[in-house]
Prior knowledge:
- This protein has ten helices and eleven strands.
- It is of the alpha/beta class.
- It folds into two domains: 30-117, Rossmann fold (3-Layer(aba) Sandwich); 141-271, 3-Layer(aba) Sandwich (Rossmann fold).
- Strand 2, helix 2 and strand 3 form a beta-alpha-beta unit.
- Helix 1 (8-30) runs parallel beside helix 10 and helix 2 crosses helix 10.
- The ligand Nc1nc2c(c(=O)[nH]1)N[C@@H](CN(C=O)c1ccc(C(=O)N[C@@H](CCC(=O)O)C(=O)O)cc1)CN2 is lined by residues 50, 96-99, 121, 141-142, 233, 246, 265-267, 270-271, 273-274.
- Belongs to the tetrahydrofolate dehydrogenase/cyclohydrolase family.
- Residues 6-121 form the Tetrahydrofolate dehydrogenase/cyclohydrolase catalytic domain.
Amino acid sequence: MTAAIIDGKAFAAGLRQRVAQHVARLREDHGLVPGLAVVLVGDDPASHVYVRNKGEQTKAAGMNSFEFRLPDDAPESALLERVAALNADPAVHGILVQLPLPKHMDAAKVIDLIDPAKDVDGFHVVNAGKLAVGADGIVPCTPLGCLMLIRDRLGPRLAGLNAVVIGRSNIVGKPMAQLLLRESCTVTVAHSKTRDLPALARSADILVAAVGVPEMVKGDWVKPGAVVIDVGMNRIPKADGSGTRLVGDVAFAEAAAVAGHITPVPGGVGPMTIACLLANTLTAACARAGLPVPAL
Ligand SMILES: Nc1nc2c(c(=O)[nH]1)N[C@@H](CN(C=O)c1ccc(C(=O)N[C@@H](CCC(=O)O)C(=O)O)cc1)CN2
């Protein structure tokens, strides 16, 4: 079997277009322009690229983009003050603090200060709690994007399928498991202490790898025909020593020989993250205005 490749880049482009159409209607019918504020602390080169892309894609969708930068050695209080000001700003519907933060800052404390209604990352405990109890809230972008890609391949009815999520982070693994549970999948969350992970992975109709270990999931971990979603983004040295290349948590060629559907890295889950951020910002703006939240 050779898996069908899930083109996250194309799917994300379609989602951004649908968001832009809703944004245009919101402006025409209600004079409302959603606004997204992104706060970047420090000099991490990858974060700078992600934040620039977020700004460009926000504007391309017809929304207002506000960007704030703080130096690497800024005190935590400066970031907390910025978040408090954005909470109070009526032009801002979504707030995102780019992670990772410098070591002297406590990400949990910063996220805790974000107004949950503006927490377009869906990382606040209020939004995590809403997801856990099945209430409407803001869902973290990467797992939301993964679910959209899974649904696109398997249809809306995932009930009864076995899903294995490798990784238990608050940002991806746990919300991914909650989303699949909400779809009535039978969900197992695996982690570094899981016994016989290859056998567990082989039981999965849906296998999500979000562990941060380059090419850890081998071909013989994959059930024939499974949907394999690779959230990993790992830079490893090229074989000829001429720089680095990006690989996922899945050994792509091996897994693609067995799976039914598989996301590549790059071009799979990654582009969905920013597209879902735009969708969450639209959702937050509609919710605050008391307007129906569009189905995307
Ligand atoms: N506050 C947040 N911080 C971070 C998040 C997040 O969702 N919220 N996620 C990541 C970074 N990230 C967005 O912020 C992000 C990462 C990767 C991509 C992407 O499109 N990746 C491409 C490859 C890019 C490359 O070549 O390096 C792909 O996979 O095709 C988008 C967004 C951590 N921080």
